[in-house]
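Entry 14. Structure prediction run on the chain below.
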Amino acid sequence: MTRKKRRLYILLLCGIGLGSATALTLTAFQDNLVFFRSPSDIARETPPAGRAFRLGGLVEEGSVQRQGEHEGRPAIHFRVTDGANTVPVVFAGVLPDLFREGQGVVTQGMMGPDGVFRAREVLARHDETYMPPEVADALKRSGHWNPAQGAAPAPATWNTLDPARPAAPAATPLPRSGT
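Output returned:
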């Protein structure tokens, strides 16, 4: 084998190795990417089944319901809104201390076939002035907040959802221990 052919084979093998490594890396990244979506994004385009993503917005007033247990953990049902649309969410686990109605939230999970978002993780905003950038962008896109006009308005002032929608069923109170 001549030196020229040997160099060509080595170069060809290096190219195949580099291409394979790049393809494997991109495949691994694609499986681990988690995209952010607002309720309006989901209303426009339903995400693919089985694909994890983050859902962000504000917890709709009057929507939090604690309903028994799921796999030994408390089950919580609530709705996330961006003012124009809402998405029902179910979460089995302990909510963060700062989670409450009317506050910003980012949930990570998958959309179920029944249109309910099944959250694996719930993150609540951590102080009075902070708003996750994704939530702020969703509020700006929906026309409910213009940062040039000051802080984000209270959810009750911009929630334009249909008031004729039936109210959520009453929440089941959790038993208190030690009282």
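The beta strands are 35-37, 53-59, 65-70, 73-81, 86-92, 104-111, 117-124.
Filed with the rest of this week's runs.
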